[in-house]
UniProtKB/TrEMBL annotation:
Record-given protein name: DUF7087 domain-containing protein
Keyword Isomerase appears in the UniProt entry: no
Domain DUF7087: 15-150
Lineage of the organism: Eukaryota, Metazoa, Ecdysozoa, Nematoda, Chromadorea
Segments traversing the membrane: 24-43, 49-68, 99-119, 131-152
Keyword Transmembrane: yes
Length: 154
């Protein structure tokens, strides 16, 4: 039993600067998104127009959301609390009508990375690698937000 409590203490005592890590993840997402757009631009002749258009729009949507959240320094912890219906002190709150906006802003980069990875037919290892980095980076951002809410109760 003592081993379990020491493990929980180690998890709760992880030191990092949340804002700095999230901003770093968003900068990486912006760079990777721009790189994916560049690779899609060069792959226009290799894939069909509609597939190219769909992949380009998904990548652009991810870039726009990452840029908005980066430039305005928006905190994903608030969005996650609204989606889960909990306040900062742990009480339940009423979910607003526009919860889809919160969900879209929170999960869009990860879902876009998954869609780009699954639905590309490019025979380009760089594009596949960039989509993997896209998914890992956005997943790490989501993981930090869940960690902040559920483990640290921030």
């Amino acid at each position: 039993m003592a081993e379990s409590s020491s493990w929980q203490n180690k998890i709760q005592n992880v030191k990092y600067d949340y804002e700095e890590m999230v901003m770093l993840a968003r900068r990486v997402l912006l760079g990777i998104g721009a790189f994916e757009e560049l690779l899609l631009f060069f792959a226009f002749a290799k894939i069909g127009f509609f597939e190219w258009l769909l992949l380009t729009l998904i990548a652009a949507f991810s870039i726009v959301i990452s840029y908005v959240r980066y430039s305005r320094r928006l905190d994903g912890r608030y969005d996650l609390r609204v989606l889960l219906g909990i306040s900062k002190d742990g009480k339940s709150v009423k979910m607003p009508q526009d919860y889809a906006d919160f969900a879209g802003m929170l999960f869009c980069p990860f879902v876009a990375g998954v869609i780009l990875f699954l639905f590309n037919h490019l025979e380009n290892g760089l594009f596949n690698l960039s989509t993997i980095v896209h998914m890992l980076t956005s997943g790490a951002g989501l993981g930090m937000e869940f960690y902040e809410i559920f483990v640290l109760n921030q």
